[in-house]
Amino acid sequence: MRILVVEDTEDLADAIVHRLRKLGYAVDWVADGHEAEELLRREPYQLVLLDIMLPGIDGQALLGQLRRRRNATPVLMMTARSQVDVKIDLLDLGADDFIVKPFDLRELEARCRALLRRSHGMASSRTQFGNILFDAAAKLVEVDGRPVELGGREFRLLELFLGHLGAVMSKEDLMDRLFSLDQPTALNAIELYVSRLRRKMQGSSMEIRTVRGLGYVAEIRNGE
């Protein structure tokens, strides 16, 4: 999952980026509204964490531009304003959620998980797929009750496949979602991560098929 953090307070941004990357997310950070606008026009993100008070274009204006372009990327607004009217304005403008500063990073994590879960049609962080138990909050994966140890990026790759069952995902798309801009990598790295995931998920209901020339498709086998 790839997240854009738009925050001009460097200490706070560093803390958020470090925390989310530790959880296996690919995270890009910019401190200016104009830079954020440029990135959002050309890069695919699954979630945007957006401060209101920014140099260049402020967060509310940026959110408005995003929604007028019919970009439905989930947006979590970060604001120091706790007034009800401000919250109502943000939600009416198209924000999916908001969090009031100062906040606990654990709450931010939970709100991020909830927005990403909703965008993939998952009602709960704990979901069963055949004989696979997937818990995004606890970072837990089990196959037939057996814990499966996955690295951070392997966990996010599994989350992507489970959120797009039956859909072909290209290597380029997977790379965009798993790596941030300051983590350049080659396409064969995706092949390596898919190979590791297949090996670790042996015996599960999920099959990851290679679609030659297109990418990969994950499916839950019938009757499992």
Your description of this structure?
The chain contains 8 helices and 12 strands. Helices cover 41% and strands 23% of the residues. Helix 6 (152-163) packs across helix 8. The protein folds into 2 domains: 2-119, 3-Layer(aba) Sandwich (Rossmann fold), CATH 3.40.50.2300; 126-220, Orthogonal Bundle (Arc Repressor Mutant, subunit A), CATH 1.10.10.10. The protein is globular, with a radius of gyration of 18 Å. The chain has helices spanning 10-22, 33-42, 59-68, 84-93, 105-119, 152-163, 171-178, 188-200, and strands at 2-6, 26-30, 47-51, 75-79, 97-100, 126-129, 132-135, 140-143, 146-147, 168-169, 206-211, 215-220. The longest helix is centred in the middle third of the chain and has 15 residues, at 105-119. A hairpin with a 4-residue loop joins strand 7 (132-135) and strand 8. It is of the alpha/beta class and 224 residues long. The protein has a 5-stranded parallel sheet with strand order 2-1-3-4-5, with helices on both faces. Strands 6-7-8-9 form a 4-stranded antiparallel sheet, covered by helices on one side. The chain has a 3-stranded antiparallel sheet with strand order 10-12-11. This is Two-component response regulator (OmpR family). The modification 4-aspartylphosphate is found at residue 51.
